[in-house]
Every structure is written in structure tokens, then in C-alpha cells.
Amino acid sequence: MIGAGLILLGVGALDLARKRLSGAKLGIVLVVLGAALLPLAAWAGAAAWWFAAVAVAAGWAAVTSTREPTRWGLWPAALLAVVVAVAVALIGVRDGQGPLERIWPIDSPLGVVSLDLAIALAGALVFLVESGNVIVRASLRCGVVAAEAANELKGGRIIGPLERVLVFALTLTGAFTLLAAVLAAKGIVRFPEISRDHDGGDRAEYFLVGSLVSWVVALGAAFLIWWGTAV
């Protein structure tokens, strides 16, 4: 689980940075991010996974964009899902979690939270904020009409991350009734905008596809945490 957490943390943090940076500045951010993750990985007894996290983050940045869809579509997201799944399959919550485990406070209101679980949760949450938007954007078809729909429903850029974090948290805590209410509320709030759609149905398509992909990303992250603790 520590490997998946570090990978998601690296990818998510880099996406947050490159939302406003590009070129040489982005390269500097990648170096700084790698330097910041190295002590965490070393103190957690997972230095080998640091190399994987930096490599995956660099590869992700090379084939995706935080501003517009790329020709790679959803393939980078699918490959990333395979990588983190393999990381969880190889190692779940470890018995020994490095020097940092000795000072890590494992008690919490929700029960015992090990160092591996804490890093995985942090990585998933950081990933859901901006990297989730990258995946949703990649799932939407290009074109002028789609761009107009994106502009008219641009509140989704803010609602989306909040929604994914809520879906992630409610799924992990088993609050499925509240989860259903949140998802239904989004449809009700967006209904007036969708009802004004033209014959092409582009605004409705944008909303439905974007919402479904966003929910799948959040549910996938929650499943990853559940699976990691069960391994």
C-alpha cells in the first residue's frame, strides 16, 4: 500500500503544481517534489518505491495535460490504475513500516491508522483533487460544442474535486445512504442547465460523462484503500 500511496501522492502533487506551471519551471517542481518525497519514503522504509513514484509522475506529466484533452485519451489513467493495483497486490499494509513508525500516532477517532494507510489516504486525496480533473477532461470529446459546454458548466472544475473527496470519504465510511443523496443532489442542482440543452445534447453529454467518470475515479480510489487493508 505504501507504494500506491507514494505514486498517487507524486502524481497528484505534480498535477496541482503544473496547473499553473510549464516548461523548465515544471521540471524544477518535479525535482523539488522528488526531493521532498525521498525523506518520507526513506523514513517509512520504502525508498525503493520512491523511484517508482518519481518515474510514474514524470511519465504521467509527459502524456497528460491539466488544460485540455490529449491524443492519449484515457490510456494513461488505465495504465496508472494497473500500476497502483500491482503496487497494492505486491505489498499491502506492512508489519514493519520503517523508522517513522516508531513515532507515528496510530490511534484516531476512526480507529487504528497505520503509517502505510495514512500515506495511501493522503496520496488518494491529493490525486482526487486535480488529477481527477485531468482524467475527466480526457474522457470528454474534443470540439467547439464540447468546449462551450465546458465553459457553461465550468463550476464543475470546483464541484468535481469536492464531489470526488465526498464520494471517497462516504464510501470508505460506509455512509451509502448519504452518498446516494449527494449524487442525487448534484443532478437536481444541474437540472435547470441541462434542461436548456440544444438538440445535440452536448451539455447533457458533458455532464453525464464527466460525472460518471469522476465518480468512478473516486470509487476506484476508495476500493484501492479497502483492498490494500484487506491484502
From TrEMBL:
Residues passing through the membrane, by range: 26-52, 72-93, 105-129, 165-185, 206-227
This protein's UniProt keywords: Membrane, Transmembrane, Transmembrane helix
Domain of life, source organism: Bacteria
Protein name: Uncharacterized protein
Species of the source: Microbacterium paludicola
